[in-house]
Amino acid sequence: MAEARWSLNGMTALVTGGTRGIGYAIVEELAGFGARVHTCSRNEKELNDRVLEWKSKGLQVTGSVCDLSSVSDRKKLMETVSSLFDGKLNILVRSGNASLPREFIHRIARSRLICISCMWYWCSHR
């Protein structure tokens, strides 16, 4: 159990490419500290297996199949995340080979958002 001072209870997070490697570890850590996490992957079987694994550990993780190189998939992901989190997203982590265009980040980041890229940079929105 995480110390209360590190609690992310009430926070929401989107982690792209969260089914493997660093993304997988980030999903587990964020959810382990109490955040509600949504992740996406192009591989449906792998995604479903990971979501079941996290749920068996009592973690609040959901997932959807998404290819971020597709405009229509990005739009669908934004709608899904907005619906799941009632329009509130606190943490956005870009993991794997996911390319997040500025329009994606600007449309989803209507309030304070911590944005982390596991490949290139870390920035704080606003």
From TrEMBL:
Statement: the UniProt record of this protein carries the keyword Oxidoreductase: yes
UniProt entry keywords in alphabetical sequence: NADP, Oxidoreductase
Superkingdom: Eukaryota
GO MF annotations, alphabetized: oxidoreductase activity
InterPro entries in alphabetical order: NAD(P)-bd_dom_sf, SDR_fam, TR
Protein family: Belongs to the short-chain dehydrogenases/reductases (SDR) family. SDR65C subfamily.
PANTHER family named among the record's database cross-references: NADP-DEPENDENT MANNITOL DEHYDROGENASE, TROPINONE REDUCTASE
Record-given protein name: Tropinone reductase I
Species whose genome carries this gene: Linum tenue
Taxonomic lineage from the root: Eukaryota, Viridiplantae, Streptophyta, Embryophyta, Tracheophyta
